[in-house]
Amino acid sequence: MSTTAAAVSADATPRRGAFSLLKATGPVGIGAAVVIALATLVAIFGPLLAPYDPTLSDLSLSWVAPTGGHLLGFDGQGRDLLSRLLVGARTSILGPLAVVILCMLAGTVLAVTAAWRRGAVDAAISSGLDIMFAFPGILLAVLAASVFGAGLLAAAVALAIAYTPYVARVLRGAALKERSQQYVAALEVQGVSARAICMQHLVPNMLPLIVAQSTILFGYAMVDLAAISFLGLGVQPPNPDWGVMISENQAGIVQGYPLSALLPGLCIVLVVVAFNVLGERLFEQAQKARQ
Amino acid sequence: MGGQLGGNRLELINWSFLLRRLAMLLASLLVASFVIFAAMYLAPGNPIAALSGGRSLPPSSIKVLEERYHLNEPFLVQYWYWLKNALHGNLGISITLRENVSTLIASRIWTTAGLVLYASVIILVVGIGLGVLSGLRHGALDTSTLVVTAVSAAIPAFVAAIVLILLFAVKLGWFPALGNGTSFLSNLQHLTLPAFALAVSSLAIVARVTRASVREESNREHVQTAVSRGIPTRQVIWRHILRNAAIPVTTISGITIASLIAVAAVVEVAFSLNGLGAFLVGSAQSKDLAVVQGISLVLVTAFVVVNVLVDILYAVLDPRVSLGSRAA
After folding, report:
1. CATH number at residue A214
2. Do B153 and A276 touch (CB under 8 A)?
3. Which residue of A76, A255, B21, B209 pairs with B252 in a disulfide if CB–CB is 3.0 to 4.6 A?
4. Is residue A159 domain-resident?
5. Does some domain include residue A174?
6. Which residue spans within B28-177 are E strands per DSSP?
7. Which of B166, B261, B269 sits opposite A231 (nearest CB)?
8. Contact in structure between B314 and B265 (CB atoms under 8 Å)
């Protein structure tokens, strides 16, 4: 009995709730979190909020400036810009979310496996990851598009594969450190299975770092996915997506109607800044907690 | 003195570290080339139809094609032939342009290389300069650098591209908005806006890392000691702060510059530049697989080689890296 108590008390890294974790990031962090929450709401309810059909085009209205009823005016093909921005939030935000979930899952499993088994398994995983570093995310997504055809799914999976070695490398270090803690040895002596120790103790203790990394990666994924859609290899027009909207309205920049290309760009920058700022603060918090 | 120091540093390079890194490089390239070949092999479409441009051919010509391109051989044998040809500079024929892929690549590679090089210079000069300045000085400059870099780190290259075109090509008319130049000088002018678009976010990241490491080194005990011993400020900055801060700055600069090789595609498309990346994207859309294979191979090789160079430079700057690997 006493060994259990000792093991549990040795696992003393205080686990804090999401709210107190957020509060510790200060006013800037909370501001960033508010922006992210708003963007998430738009991603979920955007199609309900949109005043018009985002794909309904009327070429006689192309590039028409904001008027009553059409707060942001029309794009190059005479479609309501506000509606396209609101509906476009969905793929622009859910796409990166899928990338982050996929690469965090794969990265965590690889990192914990490498740290737990050590020796040959660790060496094999680590050198495998080193080789995976050879593919930049965008290049892998272009390859995927030429094999499977252009689309959001292939691009998201390709990016997740390209990000996995970065995730796994950082988490492996944290997992190794956690693995060498005494409470792990104590639990092992008691005959607790490796899987249970990893799932119930190791991973939860790494959670602040995992959350911080997910937040930072979200920004990268959003930029890369939008870039792929901008290149015509991701979300396909006429579907609205912030990356697609920039590419289809780029002509307006030179013709003197920059609004339709600038606003989706602004949306991307705003959301990415929020994720970067919050991620950086969470990272600092996670590192402080480790010391 | 300097030469002697350099000699010592060279001796400090752990040769087994270097060899291991080079072996890793070859392994990466081999696996990458295999993945690139396998992906195109699995891609839907009949290679005969691709070679004939969709025309129906008599069986005798099909047989000739099958033999010339080893289409009936097992997968690994085909890979071997492809790799052997690639190493000899023969990357196959573009089905849309009916030209050698190597020729097509050679005519575009300098646009991409020039763009990446130009952006790298901007990142190193402006990014490190800004980082050092704001790291050494507290106050308004530092605060504004922090805010500006936090925002610009989040600006994707294609968003930077449209903003730069709007400001400097459309409104001010200082630079051309699109296309390549015809002479060296006009090329430079045509590449200026694209290079800045490519550099913006990396520049901000490099500036932030530089600032953080300069700040960290300035707070070290040995720096305080040097200051209190009356060593001139200039010397303290160069010898005690910047030299130590150079290590993380080298790493982050190297990583970000390597990543430009892929992102250049986005900038080339945004500015209608005739470079490798834009060609790759166009070929992916038209399923010109030989071109996709060839360019991917060139870009991956460049990416991996730059990364290895950065690793080696890092080991030269910080001998602990290679010594540590010896101990391990």
Report:
1. 1.10.3720.10
2. yes
3. B209
4. yes
5. yes
6. none
7. B269
8. no
